From TrEMBL:
Organism: Juglans regia (English walnut)
UniProt-recorded Gene Ontology molecular function terms: guanyl-nucleotide exchange factor activity
Stretches assigned to the VPS9 domain: 46-190
Compositionally biased intervals (Basic and acidic residues): 220-236, 247-258, 353-364
Protein name, as recorded: Vacuolar protein sorting-associated protein 9A-like isoform X2
GO terms classed as biological process: vesicle-mediated transport
Pfam families documented for this protein: DUF5601, VPS9
Gene giving rise to this polypeptide: LOC109013158
Source superkingdom: Eukaryota
SMART domains xrefs: VPS9 (SM00167)
Gene3D superfamilies named among the record's database cross-references: 1.10.246.120, VPS9 domain
Biased composition (Gly residues): 407-416
Length: 416
């Protein structure tokens, strides 16, 4: 198809870069139209997605960076949230190239964070041995939906002549990460077999308990709605039977209470036994931030020093202070969201505007040009790790009705 339009009179005299850009536009246009019919169209893809997602959901309940032999020097889970956010964007796009760029952005964030950490600790630049375990850990923590289908879609429909160089390297790493996670076992996590099985059983029980709690809340709301039309006496008899053991264990003073209150009391007791840890609260808040992009723009702009350079501060040990501040803010916001309270921003008298104000733009026009797309694959500034979120191409949603004429720019992926 590309050969046909290259030979057409309308393209006579065009440069190779213009022809490559037109080929990108053609691929994007065709695959956007065919997406509903070709993405996850095979039953095996859906099955693999479900199995992989379920396994990741279990493993992420207990996995730690140490299980993947990630050095303490390179451990920075709060900053890894940025890489997780980039990976989550893969389902926002329909074109194979756009999905591939999401993987590239995730990998580049990880690479830059590792590089900055190596400089701060005066260690050798990180290589594949340091990069790959972090990519696995980020993928497990992100657990992006339909990961297998997305990777298969890129393999099948991304033109092989364009899947080269840096994009091919990072994509191969992501395929390897998927394979590693699918076959993960106790040995892969540096665990004893009994410990691994115990952790998996605990994770199943935890997830099953959460599901049961949600179902119980739904059933209870249904019962409350039905009870309005039922006689009071039968309802009390039902509650008396279902909570007989609880009523025996209660103090005598509680027997004077209405039996209709016994069910909520039992639930309160079970909830009191499940006091979430600080790690659970932090993970809960992080999940909320990952799902609500608008919330990120509102929350983090109140902390201007979070994205400051070392030269912007005038105290001793500025790099260490800045890194500690960044980690503190991320943990504070995640814990606040986990507790369901609004984080308190610093007052205006305590903050100063930086020369480069950090802004988070909302989703842009889906009919983006490849010139804008080119910015997505540019290497990010290692000291300003939020820069991937500011690229214009990252703000565009899945294109719906594009034309080849609206897509310009060069084949920037292979030029890296």
């Amino acid at each position: 198809m590309e050969a046909a339009f290259r030979a057409h009179a309308l393209w006579a005299g065009c440069s190779e870069e213009e022809l490559d850009s037109s080929g990108e536009g053609l691929e994007k246009y065709v695959m956007t139209k065919l997406f509903p019919r070709v993405f996850a169209s095979h039953p095996n893809d859906v099955k693999c997605d479900d199995q992989l997602s379920e396994k990741i959901a279990l493993i992420q309940q207990f996995i730690q960076p140490e299980n993947l032999d990630i050095k303490a020097t390179f451990q920075n889970e709060t900053s890894w949230l940025l890489a997780q956010k980039e990976l989550h964007k893969i389902n926002m796009y329909k074109a194979p190239r756009d999905k591939l760029v999401c993987i590239l952005n995730c990998c580049k964030v990880i690479s830059n964070l590792l590089f900055n950490a190596s400089i701060a600790s005066n260690e050798n630049p990180p290589g594949a041995d340091e990069f790959f375990p972090v990519l696995i850990y980020v993928t497990i923590k992100a657990n992006p939906p339909k990961l297998h289908s997305n990777l298969s879609y890129i393999q099948r429909y991304r033109h092989q002549s364009r899947l080269v160089a840096e994009p091919a390297y990072f994509f191969t790493n992501m395929l390897s990460a998927e394979s590693f996670i699918s076959n993960i076992d106790a040995k892969a996590l540096s665990m004893e077999e009994t410990e691994f099985e115990k952790n998996m059983e605990y994770a199943r029980a935890l997830l099953s308990g959460l599901s049961t709690d949600l179902d119980g809340q739904s059933d209870q709301s249904d019962k409350d709605g039905q009870s309005r039309a039922e006689p009071v006496e039968p309802k009390h008899q039902y509650l008396n039977v279902s909570n007989e053991s609880d009523s025996i264990a209660r103090p005598k003073s509680s027997e004077t209470k209405s039996k209709s209150n016994m069910v909520p009391d039992a639930k309160d007791t079970s909830l009191m036994k499940k006091i979430p840890s600080l790690s659970d609260l932090e993970n809960k808040g992080a999940t909320i931030l990952l799902k609500e992009e608008d919330m990120v723009s509102q929350v983090f702009r109140d902390y201007p020093y979070l994205f400051a350079h070392g030269g912007d501060l005038t105290v001793n040990d500025v790099e260490e202070l800045l890194n500690n501040y960044k980690q503190l803010v991320f943990k504070y916001v995640c814990l606040s969201k986990g507790l369901g309270v609004a984080p308190v921003p610093l007052s205006n008298s305590q903050t100063h505007k930086l020369q480069e104000e950090v802004t988070f733009k909302e989703a842009g026009d889906p009919e983006e040009s490849n010139d804008e797309s080119k910015e997505r694959t540019n290497q990010y500034d290692g000291t300003n790790i939020v820069s991937p979120l500011q690229d214009d191409i990252l703000k565009s949603k899945s294109p719906q009705d594009e034309t080849v004429a609206t897509i310009g720019g060069g084949n920037d992926e292979t030029s890296q």
